[in-house]
Amino acid sequence: MEDFRTLLVLRAARETGVLDALVASADTPAAVAEQAGVTERAAEVVVAVLVDRGFLTWVSGAVEPTNRMLGFITKTDVRSIGSLPHALDVADALVALPAAMEGDDVPAGGDTDRAFRNRLGAAAARDDAAVRAAVTAAVHERPGAESVVVVGDDAGHHAVECARRGFDVAAHHDDRVVDAIRPVLAAEPVELVGGGVAEPVDAAADLAVIPHTLSRRSPTAAQEVVRAASESVSAAGGTVAVVDTFGSAPGLSAALLATTPGGAVRDADRVASWLADAGLTDVRTSDVPGTEHRVVAGRRRAVQ
């Protein structure tokens, strides 16, 4: 993760058009200064930072973008975006936060197509080991499960991991996300289901997994997701498992305050109460080993 000073320099480069100039044709600080309309001193410093951080490399007296710059060049494949563009969007929102704190509005730009795809890019860049650990912890809550519906999985990583373990998997998300990740998951044995995460899926799945999505939503919206998931699992003991960050996470809390209209890091007990309110029983909380995440899970009582 870049330190905050580097993020602010990158943010300035993006906002002033320096990144656009470098991606287009500018290959020296002087050319950057001319095309972006910044001072040569500023161009020299920003180019030096980008070279130092691995976004540019010097080749025969000119700078060229490296693969690390791909996230600023193309947004077509969310896997090529990486986590940094989203981190810059969060930095933008944090800079604008003082004005937003006087009301309920998220800073402008938080729901642009660029920010949306950058969010998916950050999800696609999530550590593979953390995804595997989350899936292991979630499926542990429903031994013998054969079918899984994964709800609100921004890049589809958790759904793919479930499928690779032999489960019959559906990935349920808003239509906009489904459209964005469909090309990425085309070769994976995962059924994509749109229509909105607050609507149940006619799946009668053994297990519903909700990874890293409730914290981005308001309490009311999050409860609707939980209720829809509970209606998407089998009435004969189907289980809902929520994977997220719970308790104290100041950095994430600040990011959610700045980038969402009602998101927050919540206590596990509060989410557990939402599962209970949705009619789930045996609600319990467990750790996701090797990560800062936890699982809150409950099951539908089997109908006699």
UniProtKB/TrEMBL annotation:
<dbReference type="InterPro" id="IPR036390">
    <property type="entry name" value="WH_DNA-bd_sf"/>
</dbReference>
<keyword id="KW-0489">Methyltransferase</keyword>
<dbReference type="GO" id="GO:0032259">
    <property type="term" value="P:methylation"/>
</dbReference>
<dbReference type="GO" id="GO:0008168">
    <property type="term" value="F:methyltransferase activity"/>
</dbReference>
<dbReference type="InterPro" id="IPR029063">
    <property type="entry name" value="SAM-dependent_MTases_sf"/>
</dbReference>
<protein>
    <submittedName>
        <fullName>Probable S-adenosylmethionine-dependentmethyltransferase</fullName>
        <ecNumber>2.1.1.-</ecNumber>
    </submittedName>
</protein>
<dbReference type="InterPro" id="IPR036388">
    <property type="entry name" value="WH-like_DNA-bd_sf"/>
</dbReference>
<keyword id="KW-0808">Transferase</keyword>
